[in-house]
């Protein structure tokens, strides 16, 4: 198999350790709560990211900017796409996860201390 086997083995071991064993060990023995809470939150975040990617791809296909024409348009296109993606991800995350709304409120309080909740 050669290099493909080495890369596949590394990927499988990374997936097993980082995504299965470490969260299980931390939640089961560290926090002493069910790992199901982690998986629910992980799936919510994954769903928010997937929705944002799909929506951003659709919007990007309708943008009038042609990034292939010159370097300035490429930079402008990248900035616009990053802003669109970030905005969509923020809105979807706030809709899916209550903790994200609390995070946004705290951020607003740091920027504008006289903000009323």
Give a written overview of the molecule:
By secondary structure, the protein is an all-alpha fold. The chain contains four helices and no strands. The chain has helices at residues 3-31, 36-61, 71-96, 98-111. Helix 2 runs antiparallel to helix 3 and helix 3 (71-96) crosses helix 4 (98-111). The longest helix is centred in the first third of the chain and has 29 residues, at 3-31. It starts with a helix and ends in a 6-residue tail after the last helix. The mean pLDDT is 89.
Structural class: mainly alpha
Low-confidence stretches: none
H and E string: HHHH
Number of continuous helical runs: 4
How do the helices and strands line up, and which of them pair or pack?
Elements lengths: L2 H29 L4 H26 L9 H26 L1 H14 L6
Helix pairs in contact: 2-3, 3-4
């Amino acid at each position: 198999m050669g290099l493909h086997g080495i890369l596949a083995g590394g990927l499988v071991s990374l997936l097993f350790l980082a995504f299965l064993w470490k969260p299980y060990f931390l939640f089961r023995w560290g926090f002493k709560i069910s790992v199901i809470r982690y998986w629910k939150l992980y799936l919510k975040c994954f769903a928010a990211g997937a929705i944002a990617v799909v929506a951003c791809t659709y919007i990007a296909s309708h943008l009038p900017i042609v990034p292939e024409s010159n370097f300035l348009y490429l930079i402008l296109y990248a900035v616009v796409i990053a802003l669109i993606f970030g905005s969509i991800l923020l809105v979807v995350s706030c809709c899916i996860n209550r903790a994200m709304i609390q995070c946004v409120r705290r951020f607003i309080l740091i920027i504008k201390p006289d903000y009323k909740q």
